Amino acid sequence: MLVLDERIAHLRTYANQFKALPSQIRSSELSLGGLGSSGGFGIGHFPVAREAFEHEEHVLVGRENVVDEELDGYRIWAGIDPIED
Questions:
Q1: C-beta separation of 1 from 11 below 8 A
Q2: Could you tell me if residue 36 is left (phi over 0), alpha (psi between -120 and 50 degrees) or otherwise beta?
Q3: Measured at the alpha carbon of residue 16, what is the angle toward residues 12 and 20, in degrees to the nearest 5?
Q4: Looking at the DSSP assignment, which residues form a beta bridge with residue 13?
Q5: How far is Cα 81 from Cα 39, in angstroms, rounded to an integer?
Q6: pLDDT tens digits, the chain, 85 residues: what are they?
Q7: Residue 71: how many other CB atoms lie within 10 Å
Q8: C-alpha 73, offset from chain centre
């Protein structure tokens, strides 16, 4: 999860697939892959209604701070100007 507000859960999904659920994982070990990639592709940002998200079952496998680059898609969606270097 990237951002959670009153109405929307802003999520990110990775291309990685596992035969068994890992007990823990770090996002730096995951990949978004790409279209046409043999490993499939993830999605850098997708919004889901918070109510729908809260009615689904989820398994927490880790917790870490969101890094700035992970918010690029969220900023585009929200109409927020990117941070200038």
A1: yes
A2: left
A3: 110
A4: 43
A5: 32
A6: 999 999 999 999 999 999 999 988 899 999 999 888 888 899 999 999 999 999 999 988 889 999 999 999 999 999 987 665 4
A7: 21
A8: 10
pTM for the full predicted model: 0.83
Are 73 and 35 within 8 A, CB to CB? no
Is the Cβ–Cβ distance between 61 and 26 less than 8 Å? Answer: no
Q: Is 55 exposed, middle or buried (0-12, 13-18, 19+ CB in 10 A)?
A: exposed
**In the Cβ-directed half-sphere of 75, how many Cα atoms lie within 13 Å?**
11
Helix (H, G, I), strand (E, B) or coil at 4: strand
Residue labelled with tokens 């209604």: 49
Instruction: Give the end-to-end CA distance of the chain in Å, rounded to a whole number.
Output: 25
